[in-house]
Specification:
Length: 386
């Protein structure tokens, strides 16, 4: 077999797993390349716990440079910005084009911000995660340095990500205020959601449990409120305006709305769905370009719509690895079917977690202990490679 180039774009959950498996079961005659815009990629399951201060940066991030070394992959710290599908090349922001015979994309998603004037100027999207964490850590420092002041935070988007951020941000900041003997009333957190109930996609019981916790923590929940504009009142005060004409002022705004795809994906000529996500078949293979694969948030499996969640990105790691190797070896590919019913464990920022499964919802500290164990075990799998 002549030497083949397999290029991976993005070090998301599926690629991290595929890289590790490649390191354990390498394929001779294949030049593996990873293009990533970060050295350390976050593990979504532990991100809210990092915000709460339960975990360190190292505990919640996978070192992609070490992982690439383990799998003997060439490592490009660069951002892919386009694909030349005719010449089989990845166009990068800083490096010359990178040629591929086979390609796989796992670049995640970003919150939808378009069409809301002021959102991209004044709100901080939850993704890319490094930008979000930099803004969050700066804000935490401001509160630590001036704990006597009043602070108001707004979170736009009441899905699992928004709810977890609201609860975990509350936990971290309340702790800081308590440490400095400041009243918790100095802190105001607002959560805006355009739906009827919080946590769209989860069952009614879970929504009700979350609503109760938000109330107990005095987090303002604005349901059926569609944010339509954000304006700057001063350097540190922003005004959120809703379709209903409701106006709320705050010091910082985090944006955690529905996932959307990077624009360059559709522009590349790959077949996408109406939202710009790469349409793949059950082999995680592009429906238009069989030598190209995609997994995680950026992929949508034709006829198997599922929420964009880390749990699916993780599950797709092994089938993606198998099919990339099988494709190169010219073996028949193996189908992957995403499960319909899946368990979500939602951390509530107080070392409790809610289990959401089908129509069932239940909250307990034991669930947090279990979640913490699963997450740490997952991350342990990426330590001490070599
Ligand atoms: C606040 C928040 C909390 C969440 N909590 C949970 C949770 O508890 N459980 C859960 O299941 N899901 C959760 N999610 C959803 C979860 O984050 C995503 O579904 C998951 O991260 C998707 O994984 P992925 O592998 O597709 O991509 P990602 O994990 O997003 O990884 C993509 C990688 O590709 C890199 N990249 C992106 N673009 C490029 C480019 N052009 N060139 C090179 N590299 C690139 C990125 O830097 C990143 O390293 C949460 C989301 C948010 C916003």
């Amino acid at each position: 077999m002549s030497s083949k180039n397999l290029v991976l774009i993005g070090g998301g959950h599926s690629h991290a797993i595929a890289l590790k498996l490649w390191g354990i079961n390498p394929l001779s005659g294949v030049r593996l390349t990873l293009i990533t815009d970060v050295y350390q990629t976050p593990y979504s399951g532990m991100l809210p716990g990092y915000v709460a201060g339960f975990y360190t940066f190292e505990e919640t991030h996978i070192n992609l440079s070490t992982l690439a070394q383990f799998s003997h992959a060439q490592f490009y710290l660069d951002q892919a910005i386009g694909l030349d599908l005719i010449n089989h090349q990845v166009i990068c922001a800083n490096s010359p084009p990178i040629s591929f015979d086979y390609l796989s994309l796992d670049i995640g998603s970003i919150p939808t911000m378009i069409n809301v004037p002021g959102a991209s100027e004044y709100a901080i999207p939850a993704k890319p995660v490094p930008t979000f964490l930099a803004a969050w850590n700066d804000f935490v420092k401001t509160v630590i340095n001036s704990p006597h002041k009043n602070y108001s935070i707004s979170i736009v988007g009441g899905g699992a990500g928004g709810v977890e951020l609201a609860l975990n941000m509350h936990s971290r900041l309340s702790h800081i205020l308590q440490e400095h003997q400041q009243p918790l009333e100095n802190l105001m957190i607002n959560l805006f959601h355009q739906g009827e109930t919080i946590l769209t996609g989860h069952n009614f019981s879970v929504s009700k449990i979350v609503e109760t916790i938000l109330k107990q923590r005095k987090i303002n929940l604005y349901l059926r409120q569609k944010v339509v504009q954000i304006s700057a009142i001063s350097q540190s005060i922003y005004e959120i305006q809703c379709e209903s004409k409701l106006k709320v002022n705050c010091n910082i705004i985090f944006w955690v709305t529905q996932a959307s795809a990077a624009n360059w994906i559709k522009a590349s000529g790959l077949t996408t769905n109406e939202k710009g996500f790469i349409l793949v078949n059950n082999y995680l293979q592009s429906v238009s370009h069989p030598h190209i694969f995609a997994a995680g948030d950026i992929a949508t499996i034709n006829n198997y719509p599922r929420p964009k969640a880390g749990v699916f990105a993780v599950r797709q790691g092994k089938p993606l690895f198998d099919n990339l190797q099988r494709m190169i070896l010219r073996k028949s590919l193996k189908p992957y079917y995403p499960q319909k019913l899946y368990l979500s464990l939602i951390g509530t920022g107080d070392k409790n977690a809610i289990a959401s499964w089908g129509f069932l919802g239940y909250r307990s500290p034991i669930l947090w202990t279990w979640k913490d164990y699963i997450d740490r075990e997952f991350m342990e799998g990426f330590k001490n490679l070599g």
